[in-house]
Structure formats: structure tokens, C-alpha cells
Write a structure and sequence with these properties.
This protein is of the alpha+beta class. The chain contains four helices and eleven strands. The chain has helices at about 55-65, 85-90, 145-150, 180-190; strands at about 5-10, 40, 50-55, 70-80, 95, 100, 105-110, 130-135, 155-165, 165, 175-180. The strands form two sheets. Strands 1, 2, 3, 4, 7, 8, 9, 10 and 11 form a nine-stranded mixed beta sheet that branches. The longest helix has 9 residues, at about 85-90.
Amino acid sequence: MTRHRTLAFNKPYGVLSCFTDAEGRPTLADFIRVPDVYGAGRLDYDSEGLLLLTSDGELAHRITDPRHKFLKVYAAQVEHVPKEESLARLRAGILMQGRRTLPAEVELLKGLNFPDRPVPIRYRKSVPTIWLRVGVREGQNRQVRRMTAAIGHPTLRLIRLAIGPVALGDLQPGQWRDLTPSELAALGRMG
């Protein structure tokens, strides 16, 4: 039986979620030297946080297939402080490109301490920001950013904190670790 590897990686800002880039931008290859693992999903160049990589094609498919609806949890730093009515719109689902998103789990976050990123967010003295915890069960392109923009609170910084039962934990940007047997078992039970 083939022994697969599955990794949790804290993707830094400004890194592509692939191993090669014709333009020479930073990629996963700059951080991960484990053979035969590939991203189970992706994070945008300007997003940060948890990315799972695996050599197990079935597991990768389970994680990325929208039918399985893995909860993906993000911390989103947004402009201004949303009113409860705006948060309720996210919780009900947002109409995007003629299709309503699934309801999101949303709450205000306080007391967060994320590592600085190499390119700071734009700072405007007259525009306060706040962090939201946003949980979604689908993976539309730039979904969280588009959802917060739709309620008038653009996302300035986005960090994925968890995919299903696997949490980012205390992994620092650029660090990775093998998933634990209990995390792998929990992923196997989902979907």
C-alpha cells in the first residue's frame, strides 16, 4: 500500500499556490521540498493562511469537490465596522453573478494577533477596520472578498484559518507540517 503525505502549509502573502511560475514569482517550491504533493485547492496570491497539500488524489478531490461542502474558515480584515444587518446578509447568502451563495457563518473577532505581512494593508486614519470570522462551504473564486464587498465592507487582508477539521494553529507564514493521524481520519470521515 502506498503511503501518502498530507501537509498543512501556512501560505504567505505574495506566494502562488502552485510549484512553478513562468514569471518567476514566489511559489510553493520556495517552501516545500516534499515530492509528489500538490495543493488540494488554492489560495489567491494576495491571500494567506492554511493550504493543504497531499499526494492522495482521492483526498484532494474530497477536499476540493463542492459537493462535500467542507467548512473553510477565514479571518477577514474589512473596512469599517459592519452593522448587524450587513452581517445578517452574509449569513443569509449573497447574490453574486446571478447565484446566491450558501449561508456564511459570520462573527466579529477581537484581540487577534496575526504576524505582519511584507506588504502592509492600506491604512487610512479616517477608515477603521475590523476582523470578521467568515465560514463558507463552497469555494467560488475570491468568494469571501466578493461577499464582503457586496455588503460595502471590502476585505483588506484575508487569512484562511481552517479547512474542515484541520486548523492553521500556530504555524507561522512559510512553515508546514504533516497532518496528524487524527486529522487525516477526520478528513476521511467527511463527505
